[in-house]
Amino acid sequence: MTGGDRFDEVVSAVRERVDPAEEERRRLQRTAATLVAEAEAVIDDLDVDADVLQVGSTARETWVSGDRDIDIFVRFDTSLTRAELERYGLQVGNRVLPDGREEYAEHPYVSGQRDGFDVDLVPCYRVDAATEIRSSVDRTPFHDRYLSARLTPKTAGDVRLFKQFLKGIRAYGSDLKTRGFSGYLTELLVLEYGGFEAVLDAASAWQPPVRLDPEEHGSTTFDDPLVVIDPTDPDRNVAAVVDAKNVARLQHYAREFLAEPSVDRCFPDDFDPLTEADIRNHLERRATTPLAIRFDPPDVVDDQLYPQLRRSLQGLRTGLEQQGFEILRSTVFADRTAVLFLELTVATRPDVERHEGPPVHVEEHARGFLEKYADSAVYGPFIDGDRYVVERERSITAAREFVETGLLDVALGAQVETALEDGYDVLEGAAVTALVPEFGGALARYFEPMP
Amino acid sequence: MTGGDRFDEVVSAVRERVDPAEEERRRLQRTAATLVAEAEAVIDDLDVDADVLQVGSTARETWVSGDRDIDIFVRFDTSLTRAELERYGLQVGNRVLPDGREEYAEHPYVSGQRDGFDVDLVPCYRVDAATEIRSSVDRTPFHDRYLSARLTPKTAGDVRLFKQFLKGIRAYGSDLKTRGFSGYLTELLVLEYGGFEAVLDAASAWQPPVRLDPEEHGSTTFDDPLVVIDPTDPDRNVAAVVDAKNVARLQHYAREFLAEPSVDRCFPDDFDPLTEADIRNHLERRATTPLAIRFDPPDVVDDQLYPQLRRSLQGLRTGLEQQGFEILRSTVFADRTAVLFLELTVATRPDVERHEGPPVHVEEHARGFLEKYADSAVYGPFIDGDRYVVERERSITAAREFVETGLLDVALGAQVETALEDGYDVLEGAAVTALVPEFGGALARYFEPMP
Questions:
Q1: Does A248 contact B at CB distance below 8 Å?
Q2: Residues near A131 by Cβ (< 8 Å), separated by ≥ 6?
Q3: What are phi and psi of A330, to 5 degrees?
Q4: What does the pLDDT read at residue A1?
Q5: Global confidence as pTM
Q6: ipTM above 0.90, yes or no
């Protein structure tokens, strides 16, 4: 299948915007070379066994114009203790980037600026194989070597194109908020299929679970919709973080783009934030009961926050459903505040609830049930089919009441739980319009959903 | 296990009321003998090959005082055609009971009065075995012969006691309104276990499905909670009509009666009819939404009406549940009018409903779904997990609306459907108090449920 003239035209227009200009590339590589040389000089000075290398998309010419992070890795010998590695790593970083700040991922590293570029200076161990890494940053040089040996100017250009396409469809990024496609995964897919259009063709026809193994060395099975065995580590799925929804989204938009290529699809407008009036209109049109729990989020990075918010939302959904409330859709928002947002189709319950007892023939249990409910049931015990049944008084008849009194009893993310213990607001119905100033855009994404 | 003094005392008091007085029995047997002789005389006169016998509980001394039906069967030779049998049968009936009226079950028969007793004069075929019957009435003489050969004055007395007990717990009668224990079944159970108390002991410990086979000749399996193989027909379950609820009810009350014998349990007061105020109190306490469909019932006997009402109720329940409405309990009432009565816990739905499409990867279906909903969905299509989803406008948002517009589209009993086509009232909420004059007692049984 070939996209045709219109496809080529659109792709050219996108390339125009994603391919870094010659001048930008030269400046970046010059700066990177200087940084490497400076880091090497510090290592000499410290007399420690290490080497320096530029890695990442800017090292491989696969960065999208504007995303100009320079990643410099300092690889230390494995004879160093972790404490030594961290100390030397920060020394190199601080001397190369005296105005930088120390950041913490798996190791501490130094992040700063040089010539207008964002620079990360990251210490890692120089291990013999990607399967022997001590922390995930040790893997990066192997990925870099693998890709650098295989990418050509053409495929690197197609990586840039595919990355932009994924950004356009909100599926780019392996952070745990997005759960999309990482840069490395993007590059492997382009290499695997041969180019941008070939990736779209292939993705259009995927029948998940999809398993790709470029080096044909994987033996582990994974329970993910997309499995791409890491060429540098047979036991790792590069696409493990990719949510089923993002696989489906790529399939949907790949088909759409092949059928109707569009520059705008790669550079979409932001969602127009909804106004309070917009929300009121939606609520009137839907006749559902929205419920928002707003609180001060714990002071953790997004990669820790979002999984906990989702776990908390799931816990709340389960709690509500066990009480007989019914949920149409739900989501989480986070910015200065965090929000668990649910839209209920059944938000109130009657004052009695059915409670089934044992079959009448199970005499021992039957006797216990009858004794228990002889006086405490509102109605019954009576017999339905072969069982005892009572109708009990409900303690909670409104979803809002459940949230106000029972939220801390459902399964919550640990730090979200602590944050909720400090208090939370419950907004119900039209009161959710109070979220507009902070979350108008997120509400647009919720109330005007797209694939 | 033995019931003890208190048990004996209560049983004696019940026997007092259920054992027919000597005078009543003598009068009845005299009348029956006269009827048999008169029928034989008519047969002689007609010169047809037939004999006459008294059958049923009054023939076996197992009738409960006050239930004084005399059943006289005229058994014709199998060489007669069915038309001949019916003609001769009515001739005998009309000459013996000149003031009687013709009734129609499987055959026509004559029903009338004599000396204050209700008399049925029923024609049947004289077949060689119960397995060769042409209609179910042909079986009766075999049942009669089997039981008469085995019942003693003691066991006959215990049958009367057990029948009264079953009446007291509302489980006596094999009509399709009650779906309880027939007279024949009651007698077989007393014979099987040896007496009234032994039946209660056994029933207390039943683990349904229970299978009894007095003649040890059954090979067919039945999917009923209680199976009693007919001693006169190995392929018939005498208890086929008994509802699981009535088996459970017998178990429950057998345990209760053994633990705490009570004359009142055998002769319970009628349910006090509820007043409109009672119903309003219940509804307030329950906070549910009752919905009653009232209509003129089809002109059929109860054994045809009740199964159809139940089937119609089930069809309506299914229809409502498919629309997302939720039902706590439901029942049917019938007297001059018929009622499908439901009590809803969810009686309204929002204006949108979730509708799941195909997984995105099923390209052919996915395309069809997208085309269908490109413009017609209220929200979406969007992706959830690996599927397309839309939120559609609901056509029906209230249970009442569903009943008013869609009742005739659900699975209904055939003659009930015809009756509903002529029109029906829908009563919702406190409006169901309008049922009180006709169904106050039935509503008491619903709103004050007992085992």
A1: yes
A2: A232, A233, A234, A235
A3: -160, 160
A4: 47
A5: 0.87
A6: yes
